[in-house]
Write a structure and sequence with these properties.
Number of strands: 17
Strand content: 25-35%
GO molecular function: heat shock protein binding; protein kinase binding; signaling receptor binding; unfolded protein binding; zinc ion binding
Strand order of the largest sheet: 10-11-15-14
CATH superfamily of the domain at 54-90 and 138-182: Urease metallochaperone UreE, N-terminal domain
GO biological process, one term: negative regulation of apoptotic process
Main location: membrane
Shape: rod-shaped
CATH topology of the domain at 54-90 and 138-182: HSP40/DNAj peptide-binding domain
Domain CR-type: 70-148
Number of helices: 5
Largest sheet: 4 strands, mixed
CATH class of the domain at 54-90 and 138-182: Mainly Beta
Order of helices and strands: HHEHEEEEEEEEEEHEEEEHEE
Keywords: Acetylation, Chaperone, Membrane, Metal-binding, Methylation, Mitochondrion, Repeat, Transit peptide, Zinc, Zinc-finger
Length: 300
C-alpha cells in the first residue's frame, strides 16, 4: 500500500497592490492571515485568565416581605480572588522570580510574518516578564485562589423573582439571582399587591368596617353598603416600591362574603322573613312558598 502523502504547506500569495482589488480578493487573502495572527496572539495563560474573569453566579432565597420591603442579608460566597498568601504575584513569599530571556522582560514577543511584524503576549512567561521558579503553595503560581467570604447583600426593595444584580466582592464581581417565596396572604402584580378580605353577610348588606392585613401595617377598610363578592377596594400607595421609578404601587383588597353554614333559630326566622319580601329571586327558596294571593309564606 502506498504511504499517505504529507499535506503540502499552503503557499501564501500576496496581492498585487499596484492594481485595484475587489472586496472578495482582499477577503480571500486576509482569511489565512487572520488564522496565523490568531494562533500567535493566544496563550495558555489567557485561557486561565478568561475563566477567572467570569463573574460567579449565586442564588439567594427571599421571603415575600423581604423582597417587597428590602433587606440587608448576610451571604457566604466561594469566589476566585487574588491569592492572599502571595498577593497575586504567583511566587512563594520570600522567593525570587527569574527574568524572562525569551521576551527580555517586556512580556511581549515579536513575530515576523512576511512583510508584517506582530507583537503578541510572550508564550514563555504569559506576559508576566518573569518566570516563577517557586510557585505559591496556595495558588500554585496562578495568583488566584478560591476563598470563602461572608458578605452583606443590600437587597433593594421591590425586587422580583428571577431578577439578577451584580455586586463587587473584593476585586471580583458576582451575580446574585433572587428566588422569592410565595406569600400566603399577598399576590403580586408588578408593584401592586392583591389580597382577600372575608366579611359577613350583614357587613356586605349594611356596610361597616373591617381590618385587613397590609404589607406595612394593619389597614382599617371601609365597607360600603351593598358590597358584592369579589368587589375590589383600592388602597392607594400601599403596595411595593417601584424599583425603576418613584412612588409605590397600590394594594387591591378583594372582598369575599362568608356565608355561615349553620344558623340559630332566630337567624333562620329573620332570613325567612327577609326572603318573603324578596322580589328578584330566580327560582325558589327553601322554607318559603308562594300563596294564591301572590304573597310568600313560610308555611307556618
Amino acid at each position: 500500500m502506498a504511504e499517505p502523502q504529507a499535506e503540502r504547506p499552503r503557499l501564501c500569495v500576496f496581492p498585487d497592490l499596484s492594481r485595484p482589488q475587489s472586496a472578495a480578493d482582499i477577503e480571500t487573502w486576509c482569511q489565512p492571515h487572520r488564522k496565523i495572527f490568531g494562533e500567535f496572539s493566544s496563550s495558555s495563560f489567557g485561557d486561565f485568565q478568561t475563566v477567572f474573569d467570569q463573574p460567579q453566579e449565586y442564588i439567594m432565597e427571599l421571603t415575600f416581605n423581604q423582597a417587597a420591603k428590602g433587606v440587608n442579608k448576610e451571604f457566604t460566597v466561594n469566589i476566585m480572588d487574588t491569592c492572599e498568601r502571595c498577593d497575586g504575584k504567583g511566587n512563594e513569599p520570600g522567593t525570587k522570580v527569574q527574568h524572562c530571556h525569551y521576551c527580555g522582560g517586556s512580556g511581549m514577543e515579536t513575530i515576523n510574518t512576511g512583510p508584517f511584524v506582530m507583537r503578541s503576549t510572550c508564550r514563555r512567561c504569559g506576559g508576566r516578564g518573569s518566570i516563577i521558579v517557586t510557585p505559591c503553595v496556595v495558588c500554585r503560581g496562578v495568583g488566584q485562589a478560591k476563598q470563602k467570604k461572608r458578605v452583606m447583600i443590600p437587597v433593594p426593595a421591590g425586587v422580583e423573582d428571577g431578577q439578577t444584580v451584580r455586586m463587587p466582592v473584593g476585586k471580583r464581581e458576582i451575580f446574585i439571582t433572587f428566588r422569592v417565596q410565595k406569600s400566603p396572604v399577598f399576590r403580586r402584580d408588578g408593584a401592586d399587591i392583591h389580597s382577600d378580605l372575608f366579611i359577613s353577610i350583614a357587613q356586605a348588606l349594611l356596610g361597616g368596617t373591617a381590618r385587613a392585613q397590609g404589607l406595612y401595617e394593619t389597614i382599617n377598610v371601609m365597607i360600603p353598603p351593598g358590597t358584592q363578592t369579589d368587589q375590589k377596594i383600592r388602597m392607594g400607595g400601599k403596595g411595593i416600591p417601584r424599583i425603576n421609578s418613584y412612588g409605590y404601587g397600590d394594594h387591591y383588597i378583594h372582598i369575599k362574603i362568608r356565608v355561615p353554614k349553620r344558623l340559630t333559630s332566630r337567624q333562620q326566622n329573620l332570613i325567612l322573613s327577609y326572603a318573603e319580601d324578596e322580589t328578584d329571586v330566580e327560582g325558589t327558596v327553601n322554607g318559603v312558598t308562594l300563596t294564591t294571593s301572590g304573597k310568600r309564606s313560610t308555611g307556618n
